[in-house]
Amino acid sequence: MNAIGVDVGGTKIAVGIVSADGELLDEVRQPTPHTSKRLIEALAGAIQEVGNGHEVGGVCLAVPGNILATENRVIYSPNLHAIEGVALKDELEPRIGLPLTVENDANAAAWGEFRFGAGSDVDHLVFITLGTGVGGGVITHGVLMRGAQGAGGELGHTTIQATGPRCSCGNRGCLEAMASGTAIRRRAREVAIEKPGSALNRLASTREILGEDVTRLAEGGDEAALSVLEEAGVWLGIGLAGFVNVFNPEVVAIGGGVVEAGDLILNPARREIQLRARSPARDLAEIRVATLGAKSGILGAAALARDPESGEYVLGNP
Ligand SMILES: [Zn+2]
Question: pTM (2 decimals)?
Answer without folding.
Answer: 0.94
